[in-house]
Amino acid sequence: MTTRPAPTTHADPAENQKGTRMTMPIKKPGKWLTGAAALTLATLTLSSCGSLNESSSDATGGPCKDVKAGSVKPDALKGVTVKVGSKEFDEQLILGQLTVKMMCAAGATVVDRTNTKGSTQTRKKLQDGVTDVVWEYTGTGWINYLGHDKPITDSQKQYEAVKKEDLAKNKLVWGPLAPFNNTYAFATTDEFAKKNNLKTHSDMAAYIKKNPSSTVCVESEFAARPDGYPGFKKKYGITGGKLKSLGTGVVYTQLDKGNCDFGEIFTTDGRLAALGLTVLDDDKAYFPLYNGVAVTREDYNKKHPEMLKVLAPLAKVLTTDTMTNLNKKKSADGEDPAKIAEDFLKQKGFLK
After folding, report:
1. Torsion angle, CA of 85/90/94/96, rounded to 10 degrees?
2. Pairing of strands 291-297, 172-181
3. Distance between CA atoms of residues 214 and 258, nearest Å
4. 251-304 pLDDT, tens digit each
5. In the chain, what is the straight-line distance between the N-terminal and C-terminal CA atoms, in Å?
6. CB–CB of 10/33 below 8 Å?
7. Which of 183, 171, 255, 191 is nearest to 218 (CA)?
8. What residues pair up with 264 in beta bridges, in sequence order?
9. pLDDT digits over 120-137, tens only?
């Protein structure tokens, strides 16, 4: 499911933010290509000599300044250096700062190496030891990194498959699964959904059948890709509707203005909450899953298994609604990711 899944989104179905987070995944012959959900092929292959910002500290200075542990055990990572990485779109910046603050609260010496351009370079830095932990997406791991053609439609089974294979092939350890899913979906305005009792993609298909002049807006590339709207129409039996092909990021504003009845979106995009859009459930599981997971190296995990353990309670509370609202604070409200992270962690009791 802003190079989600997602979808978003994703991914990570996208990394070109356009004010929020994402563009679309590009499809290689026979394959989905994502990027977090989250991504264009150009973005995936971008290289970067370093992160766009870097700072380091012990548990009292730099990114750890004024961080006080709440429910986090304050000496869980005492004496441990943790280099935190992330990709450069909004959701990833927030996930990176959530990780930085959690590591600080656990007493680690933290190096902030978030904000790296592209999935490829972010993963390479993790494998090379430039960073020690990054957040990835199950769909990105399964399809982009491990090269599978077909996604697994059950989130737990998809996670277990990625976790097992990436460890065996690449010595990367996938931590606890977060419930949020940054993938693709269609949405409509809250008012339109309520008026017409629209909750699922099947409801959307039924509405279009009764109202063949309905307008469906998608990004231009998604309109033509077999695994984009053509495949979606086939899966849900859609034969009517007027298709509008729009530029990246325009679908959200056109939905909001009432110029589209339905629009293709990423499920954790901050504009959903900002504009009052209802995401329809993918009840036939057409789109890949892009659940978020913190990932580290096997050698690092053997030395410091407590690092992923510190992040486990955080992963549990990161639902799709939660990530959408956190993304809104950055993409729509312009808040700093570090502040967003600290405020959220205090609200949840992880920090004081």
Report:
1. 0
2. antiparallel
3. 11
4. 999 999 999 999 999 999 999 999 999 999 999 999 999 999 999 999 999 999
5. 34
6. no
7. 255
8. 186
9. 999 999 999 999 999 999
* Degrees, nearest 5: CA angle 301-62-16: 70
| Radius of gyration for the chain, computed over Cα atoms and rounded to the nearest angstrom | 20
Of 32, 43, 11, the C-alpha closest to 120 is: 43
CA distances from 273 to 95, 171, 258, 330 (A): 18, 38, 16, 12
Q: How far apart are CA 346 and CA 316, in angstroms?
A: 16
Name the residue type at position 314.
L
SS3 (DSSP) at 199:
coil
More confident residue, 205 or 249: 205
Task: Please tell me the distance from the alpha carbon of residue 182 to that of residue 296, in angstroms, as a whole number.
Answer: 20
Alpha helices in the chain (DSSP H): 41-44, 90-105, 119-128, 138-139, 155-170, 190-196, 201-210, 220-224, 229-236, 250-256, 270-275, 298-303, 306-317, 320-331, 337-347
Cα 289 to Cα 156: distance, rounded to the nearest angstrom: 10
Helix (H) or strand (E) holding 176: strand 172-181
DSSP label of 147:
-
Q: Report the C-alpha gap between 292 and 313 in whole angstroms.
A: 14
Paired with 69 in beta bridges are 351
Question: CA of 187: how far to CAs of 1, 26, 90, 193, 217, in Å?
Answer: 13, 21, 21, 9, 10
Q: Do 268 and 4 form a contact (C-beta atoms < 8 A)?
A: yes
